[in-house]
Amino acid sequence: MMRATSTTHPQVISSEKAVARLLNLARQAQEQVPFYQKSFNGIDFTSPLTALTDLPFLTKDQVRAAQQDIVKQGMIDHPDTVLEYTSGSTGIPLKLVRSRTELMKGAKSLWRSRAQFFPDVMFTPGVQVSASELIQQEAKTDQTIILSAFDLRPDRVEQYLDQIDYHKPAWLRGHPAILAVLAEGMRRVNRRFTHKLVFVESNSGWLQDETRDLLAEMFDCPIANHYGTRETYTIAYECPHGTMHLQDDMVVAELHTREEGIGHELVVSSQIFETMPFIRYRVGDLVESGTGQCACGSSAPELRPFGGRSNELIEGTVLVGTYVFHVLVTKILKAGYDIMQYQVYQTGLDTFDVQLVLADPTSLQGIADRFVKEAASILPNASFSFQAVDHIEPTRGGKVQVFVKCL
Ligand SMILES: [Zn+2]
User: Fold this and answer.
1) In whole angstroms, what is the distance from residue 183 CA to residue 189 CA?
2) Cα–ligand 1 centroid distance for 348 (angstroms)
3) In this predicted model, what pLDDT tens digit does every residue of 350-385 receive, in sequence order?
4) 293 alpha carbon to ligand 1 midpoint, in Å?
5) CA distances (Å), 167 to each of 91, 114, 124, 131, 197, in order?
6) How would residue 29 be classed by pLDDT, with cut points 50, 70 and 90?
């Protein structure tokens, strides 16, 4: 196997304690996980000279190819095991194998951050804003009320704003793309909440400046950015002073200098996932690190995701194109149609060209009708043209760019 090691010296911003915990986890992985038995072959974890940077990187493609070889032996069918999936909006979803104990550790760490910065939230109801079709009715888990909001028709917007107002939550949380749908809905029907929110937590996805500004304006409260990935959970959490603090009990973070462009590439390792270890994982995100102490009193280093582009937003809205079309296409797939690949071009303020790679080209008309019907709930003024194509060119990174703006 090719061993991809770093050619430059990365900046490891995690504490020595965190690195030591990770090396211990890596040693266990070398003993118990078939993938790491091979990739860590020859690495002597008993030697004090063995450093984190001696370990090879892990890529998404390797995780995908390794399948259950990257899971601790005996854990696939273990009763304590839980399966999760990455979103797959930019590729094939990864299947993640976790133990309930690990999930609990991840949840506790996130709650500690929330409680540290927003101490009043622990015992107050919060609303999780979701796009899931499965949650038609409100569902309640502990203190969190889950509401589905992915429909911008005015009657639907009024309805879910009424639901949120009824519960008088102290805080909201959700993926920034879906919080943007909610805020966009509030803007369109010109309505605000009737009570004061303590904060709104933007969960995991890239929070663009335009989106943050709209959320702060519509929700009229601080926005706390929670940065993480499905694979590693929380990486950093924003304090009320606007600093994204590294979650030093969850991950080990390395910043790698890029040959071109600004920002650093993040290589991240999970300190808690032993069942399916992510060690020196090239997550593909660009980050920056800060210096000095933060006025909030936390000594955890700063780690700020970096590099989102405003060309990801559908022109004339704050809606994230990739996300909106991912949800629309998922609805069409659930209706039984087969779409192998797709790409949406915005050609004017309300005009879009949709290219589709189809298993059965005769299904084009049916899919187009369904697409237009589903899109009406979120882009009511849009008109679409459809074209069946043989293939869609991937970008240099090998991914298909789902949404392309060419106004
Ligand atoms: Zn701070």
Assistant:
1) 10
2) 42
3) 999 999 999 898 999 999 999 999 999 899 899 999
4) 8
5) 37, 20, 11, 19, 12
6) very high
On the CB side of 140, how many CA atoms lie within 13 Å of its CA? 7
pTM for this predicted structure: 0.82
- H or E stretch covering 351: strand 351-358
Q: Which domains does the chain have, with CATH numbers?
A: 11-105+228-308 (3.40.50.12780), 311-405 (3.30.300)
Beta bridge partners of 404: 345
> Ligand 1 centre from 213 Cα, in Å?
20
> In the predicted model, is pLDDT for residue 101 greater than 90?
yes
- Separation of CA 272 and ligand 1 centre (Å): 24
CA of 291 to the centre of ligand 1 (A): 12
- CA separation for the pair 133, 149 (Å, rounded): 9
Residues, beta carbon < 5 Å, ion ligand 1: 239, 241, 243, 294, 296, 298
Cα separation, 101 vs 232, whole angstroms:
15
Q: What is the DSSP letter of 304?
A: E
